[in-house]
Design a protein that fits this description.
49% of the residues lie in helices and 15% in strands. The protein has 435 residues and is α/β, with parallel strands linked by helices. It has 2 domains: 4-47 and 54-209 and 411-434, 3-Layer(aba) Sandwich (Rossmann fold); 222-408, Glycogen Phosphorylase B (Rossmann fold). The strands form 2 sheets. A 7-stranded parallel β-sheet has the order 3-2-1-4-5-6-7, with helices on both faces. Strand 8 (237-243), helix 12 and strand 9 form a beta-alpha-beta unit. Helix 4 packs parallel to helix 19 (412-434), helix 11 packs across helix 14 (315-322) and helix 12 (248-261) packs across helix 17 (378-390). The two termini are 39 Å apart. The mean pLDDT is 91.
Length: 435
């Protein structure tokens, strides 16, 4: 039985969304003209399909972020092996761009409709998914209601809920329970996530682990790796990867301090916003630092002490050539951290700041295994980097521990598929009955 809170909030939300359905089409067109929506695909956000439904069984994976979708790419491979076509939907333009380039055969991208009742109904009427998978824990009430009415199985995969999000849900416990109880199966990333989701009323919660640990490491051109490694030579080197704009001055300051002791130092700086590279190079030059920018000719024959790589596709090259990385957005405010799995899989020793809540469980594993270390400020980062430059045995031990820690905890994709097996078997039986 629903409490007065949920009985009031859900109808208000439904009425508000229904009204917005008449306002949103011109808003989406305006956003498209401003390049905030994909040009020519605004109709997808209103539930209109952009292609025919494929024949046979269809699984739908909805992800709010590109990180969640990319983490589940190995799962898409397994689903296609079981005879499913997979529709992958995202909401943001950035997430769509990141995901589309990496989708395996047998899957395709479509924008998720806004949570307006008639948009959602139009979407489901066309695609008729046999299995609905939602990555993370973002729940849209009208979508849940439509799935419930159609008796479509809903599974949360890679379900995770931060302390902050959990606290927000706890303010409306009846509303949370009324939504969570519509989930048929919840496959949590960690024990802590499972406990939070169960406390909110989610039934049938299992811990499957983090599927991002199963994702393959980023590829890199062997010639590019050997070229960069050859031009580094025996010089001390580190990578400041995926840094936030608020960390730029901090990283340049760390570089300057290290130069006082290591005059042949190589700092490879890979900003998260590649377009920021030229500005960052100009700021470094203004500080009288010797700097090269990747987009202006690749790796220089005479590599300067500061090499700014303004192309995220080259990140795997930097990881392989250096083996020592500081991961950004962890000393900035707001932080959250960057995903350390790629660096760990490629055998890097990892340094990070205290603000890593977006990947808290993975950093916890790496720190406990001594494959990663926390640095709380720039001065400590300088000291730890200096220690690792001086102690090659310690650096190699950290590198080995990081790779082993990730390898030992892989297998979430297999556990997810095992948990989905009863649903898949039932879908196969239903398909045979129809035939």
């Amino acid at each position: 039985m629903r409490s007065p809170t949920s009985a009031l909030l859900l109808p208000i939300y439904w009425v508000a969304c229904k009204g917005l359905g008449f306002v949103l089409p011109p808003v989406l067109q305006w956003r498209s003209r401003k390049s905030r929506e994909a040009r020519g695909r605004c109709r997808e956000r209103m539930g209109w399909p952009s292609r025919p439904r494929p024949e046979g069984r269809l699984a739908w994976l909805q992800s709010e972020t590109s990180a969640d979708a990319i983490a589940l790419l190995p799962l898409l491979d397994q689903l296609t092996l079981r005879g499913f076509e997979v529709l992958v939907s995202t909401r943001s333009l950035a997430a769509a761009k990141a995901v589309k380039a990496r989708l395996p055969a047998g899957s395709f991208h479509h924008y998720m409709p806004l949570d307006v009742p008639r948009f959602v109904a139009r979407f489901l009427d066309h695609w008729r998914p046999d299995l609905v998978l939602v990555a993370g824990s973002t729940l849209w009430p009208n979508l849940l209601d439509a799935l419930d009415r159609r008796a479509l199985p809903l599974v949360l995969v890679d379900a995770h809920l931060s302390d902050r999000a959990f606290a927000r849900w706890c303010r409306v416990p009846a509303l949370a329970a009324s939504l969570m109880q519509r989930i048929d199966l919840c496959l949590a990333r960690s024990t802590a996530d499972a406990e939070r989701l169960a406390a909110l009323g989610t039934r049938f919660v299992q811990v499957a682990g983090d599927p991002v640990l199963d994702a393959p490491a980023p590829t890199a051109d062997p010639l590019a790796v050997s070229t960069l490694a050859g031009r580094i030579g025996a010089r001390p080197v580190w990578v400041a990867a995926l840094t936030h704009v608020d960390e730029d001055d901090l990283i340049l300051g760390v570089h300057e301090q290290l130069l006082e002791r290591y005059t042949d130092l190589v700092t490879i700086l890979v900003p998260r916003q590649a377009a920021h590279g030229p500005t960052l190079a100009a700021r470094a030059a203004a500080r009288v630092l010797s700097v090269a920018l990747h987009s202006r000719g690749g790796v220089p024959a005479h590599l300067p002490c500061l090499y700014i790589v303004d192309d995220l596709r080259e990140l795997g090259v930097g990881y392989r050539a250096a083996g020592l990385v500081f991961l950004g957005r962890s000393l900035s405010d707001p932080g959250g951290g960057r995903n350390p799995v790629d660096a760990a899989k490629l055998g890097c020793a990892i340094l990070h700041g205290p603000n890593v809540e977006a990947f808290e469980s993975i950093y916890g594993v790496l720190d406990a295994a001594e494959g990663a270390a926390r640095v709380d400020d720039a001065d400590l980062l300088v000291r730890v980097l200096s220690l690792l430059f001086e102690d090659g045995a310690k650096l190699r031990l950290m590198q080995r521990h990081a790779a082993q820690a990730i390898d030992q905890r892989a297998g979430a994709t297999a556990r997810i598929m095992q948990a989905l097996e009863p649903h898949i078997v039932q879908i196969e039986l239903d398909t045979r009955k129809v035939r």
